[in-house]
Design a protein that fits this description.
Distance between the termini: 107 Å
Strand content: 5-15%
Structural class: alpha/beta
Bound molecules: adenosine-5'-triphosphate, beta-nicotinamide ribose monophosphate, zinc ion
Enzyme class: transferase
Number of helices: 16
Family: Belongs to the eukaryotic NMN adenylyltransferase family.
Subunit structure: Homohexamer. Interacts with ADPRT/PARP1.
Shape: globular
Strand order of the largest sheet: 3-2-1-4-5-6
Main location: nucleus
Number of strands: 6
Order of helices and strands: HHHEHEHEHHHEHHEHHEHHHH
Keywords: ATP-binding, Magnesium, Membrane, NAD, Nucleotide-binding, Nucleotidyltransferase, Nucleus, Phosphoprotein, Pyridine nucleotide biosynthesis, Transferase, Transmembrane, Transmembrane helix, Zinc
Largest sheet: 6 strands, parallel
């Protein structure tokens, strides 16, 4: 008797709460897979999702790398950690771009050697590479032009078909049938082109105020269009410097300042000095690069005199185009 009572009250509850149950089932389905039941996410939810998507960044470090030091490699690690900690960025690549011989800096060794050392130094990292475009130009190239070149290259790569990418990388890839006849951009995993950012030490940012070394419009474009990740360096008070520069202050949100707490005063100048004096630079220069230096007997009194008495190409160029 009591069994039929229970069954009857069960059906009564189900009947009276039928609509509520259906609603709960639909809600659960929507939460787990909204598109599958033909519903689009509520716009504010979509906006929140978008905000959590991280911007892909490629870090570009320009400089002499004469020779490359362990600190140059550390810059990339520090910058990547910093950007990842913001939760807004994902660093997808790092590029070392040695300056060309036409820069005419005193003691600047041939680009072929500097390039070879940088390549050896990066053989144990899977995300930092060396690019020869800048140093293979016959004339010195302004940093902003190097940045434009790499941004354009990324844009072109993003639009390349999977076949072209495979061909360029020297291997064959199966064609994804679902990608046929749709724009290549949709075929690639990336929908948005990664952004180039300048990676530099505080001394480079400070050098932007040296008269005739950098053009104002270049500084403006580097900071406002691309952005900078700047690593602290002993002897450079970068916060004060940004405060004192109107242009940097205006775009300070585009300058990521990274504090290197394990401070390290390594510089290529000091490495060259030690080498000239026959002192060890082991553990300051990556082993493979050091072997190269020893094999080719680089850095001595004579090499330090290269370009002595010549003016740095940026000064020559900017003084000529702006005689004031
Ligand atoms: N110890 C360091 N701390 C922070 N940034 C550094 C350090 N060493 C090099 N950098 C940065 O690395 C980039 C390439 O620098 P560069 O090739 O001029 O090396 P360097 O050590 O400054 O050499 P040099 O003494 O010949 O000027 C620059 O942005 C520079 O500021
Ligand atoms: N106007 C410019 O674009 C400008 C001026 C000075 C130096 N730089 C670059 O900054 C880097 C400085 O390297 P060094 O610190 O080794 O001199 C080089 O890559 C050089 O090309 C650019
Ligand atoms: Zn330097």
């Amino acid at each position: 008797m009591w069994v039929t009572d229970i069954t009857a009250s069960y059906f009564r509850i189900v009947k009276s709460h039928y609509l509520l149950l259906m609603f709960l089932i639909l809600l659960l389905d929507f939460i787990s897979n909204p598109e599958a039941i033909g519903l689009n996410l509520w716009p504010p939810v979509r906006a929140m999702e978008k905000r959590t998507e991280r911007t892909e960044v490629v870090l570009l470090a320009t400089g002499s790398f004469n020779p490359v030091t362990v600190m140059h490699l550390r810059l990339f690690e520090l910058a990547r950690d910093h950007l990842h900690e913001t939760g807004k960025y994902k660093v997808v690549k790092g590029i070392i771009s040695p300056v060309g011989d036409a820069y005419k800096k005193k003691g600047l060794l041939e680009a072929s050697h500097r390039l070879a050392m940088a390549e050896l130094a990066t053989k144990n990292t899977d995300w930092v590479e060396v690019d020869a475009w800048e140093c293979s130009q016959t004339e010195w190239v302004e940093t902003v032009r190097v940045m434009r070149h790499h941004q354009q290259k990324l844009e072109a790569e993003c639009q390349e078909s999977p076949e072209k990418v495979a061909h360029r990388k020297g291997h064959k890839r199966k064609r994804d049938r679902s990608c046929q006849d749709v724009p290549d951009l949709n075929c690639s995993n990336r929908k948005v082109v990664p952004q180039i950012r300048l990676l530099c030490g505080a001394d480079v940012l400070e050098s932007m105020s040296v008269p005739n070394l950098w053009k104002d419009e270049d500084v403006l474009e580097i900071i406002s269009r691309f952005g900078v990740v700047c690593i602290s360096r002993l002897g450079n008070d970068i916060r004060k410097f940004i405060y004192e520069s109107d242009i940097l202050w205006k775009h300070k949100n585009n300058i990521h300042l990274v504090e290197e707490w394990i401070s390290n005063d390594i510089s290529s100048t000091k490495i060259r000095r030690a080498l000239r004096r026959g002192q060890s630079v082991r553990y300051l220069v990556p082993d493979a690069a050091l072997e190269y230096i020893e094999k080719h007997e680089l850095y001595n009194e004579q090499s330090e005199e290269k370009n002595a008495g010549l003016s740095l190409e940026p000064f020559k160029r900017n003084c000529f185009s702006n005689p004031s």
